[in-house]
User: Fold this.
Amino acid sequence: MKDQYKFSHEIRVRYSEIDGQKIVFNAHYHTYLDIAFTEYMREILGPQWIKDPHSLQFDPVLVKSTVHYKKPALLDDILTIYVRVKKIGNSSLTLESLITRDDVVLIEAEMINANYDVVSKTAVPLPEKIKSKIKQFEGL
Assistant:
C-alpha cells in the first residue's frame, strides 16, 4: 500500500496532542495531514508557494475530508504521513493519505482541496502549471 506513494513526511507525537485516554486526540490527525500536504506541495512547487500562493494562483483550501481511524497513535510515536494526488479536477485536488507507525497503518484519509481565490471568495481553476507539476511528480 505504501509503495503507491512517492512522498512521505515524519512527525513525532507530542504530549499536547494526546487526550485523557493517552492516545492522539482525533483532531490532531487533521493537523498531521495538513502539515504533510503542505510539505508535499513544497516538494513539488518549491518553498515560494507557501510564502506567496497568490503569485502562483494556487491557494488550496480543504472542502471535504474522510478519515478512517484504524489504530491509535501514542505519545512519542514517530508517524509517517504518506500523501499523493489521486485525481486532478478543474479546480480541485483529491488526495489520498496514510498515517503509519512503522509498518502499521493507523489512518487512511481522503481529502479534497479546492483552489481558492481570496478576492472572489470562490473556487477557481487550477493553473495548468500546477497541474503539470503534480502530474509529472506523480507520473500521471
Notes: The mean pLDDT is 94. Strands lie at 7-12, 60-69, 78-88, 92-101, 104-117, 122-123. The longest strand covers residues 104-117.
